[in-house]
Design a protein that fits this description.
224 residues; alpha/beta; TIM Barrel
Length: 224
């Protein structure tokens, strides 16, 4: 499963995914969807390159690169990232690179292909133990703010967790995102979750800031 048509719980605006690295993500978020996926056995052990994955990516697609593991986690080698970016530059597509460690994007600013979108996950403004070994949300937002000067950016709020409305709205707006994707936990991880009223207020705040909000179908569980 290195090159796939997007389906299932993936973003509906992504047409394909490419996963040239397998192994366990060092962030260890308790709610990682990979842990409950049918290919979870491929994402255990030390991260490693899948050499056979480096084939044509075609053109005119919207790719999510590294949908099964955070390619920008500290456990991923620099030479691996450079090889992936070099391969992407050969093909004329739109590329989404998303990380909970967006600080590391800075190191590769001149290596990204054209039509790159940089994204991060910000599930809440708070810090919960379920978030594993990830940078705190405030640090992710600060890094994305700097990157938004030269790149299109997006934020995904999934799985959304309970938050402080004004602080959370400010964090997301700090990233200057083209759009925000909001979704809920789909796997029953018993996360601290916000009320429907708080979620609607967040959506209203973001739209008032002229930010497009994309709602995933799994959010309906919290909005009823």
């Amino acid at each position: 499963m290195t090159l796939n048509i997007s389906k299932g719980n993936m973003y509906d605006w992504v047409t394909k995914t490419w996963n040239p690295i397998r192994g366990e993500c060092s962030h260890k978020c308790s709610y990682c969807y990979v842990k409950s996926s049918r290919v979870k056995k491929l994402y255990t052990g030390k991260p490693h390159m899948v050499e056979s994955a480096f084939r044509s990516l075609g053109k005119d697609h919207f790719y999510f690169i590294g949908s099964m593991i955070d390619l920008w986690a500290e456990s991923i080698k620099t030479y691996s990232i450079l090889k992936i970016l070099e391969h992407c530059r050969k093909y004329q597509n739109i590329y989404l690179f998303q990380s909970k460690n967006p600080y590391r994007f800075e190191e590769f600013k001149t290596d990204f292909p054209p039509n790159t979108i940089l994204g991060t996950t910000i599930e809440t403004n708070r810090v919960y133990r379920q978030m594993g070994n990830t940078p705190e949300p405030i640090h992710r937002a600060e890094d994305m703010h700097l990157l938004s000067i030269g790149f299109k950016t997006m934020v995904t709020v999934e799985p959304i967790m309970d938050f402080d409305l004004n602080r959370f709205s400010d964090l997301i707006c700090m990233c200057n995102p083209e759009w925000v994707n909001i979704g809920a936990d789909s796997q029953g991880h018993n996360l601290p979750e916000p009320s429907s009223e708080k979620i609607q207020s967040l959506i209203d705040n973001l739209r008032d800031a002229d930010i497009e909000v994309k709602i995933k179908s799994n959010l309906k569980r919290l909005m009823t």
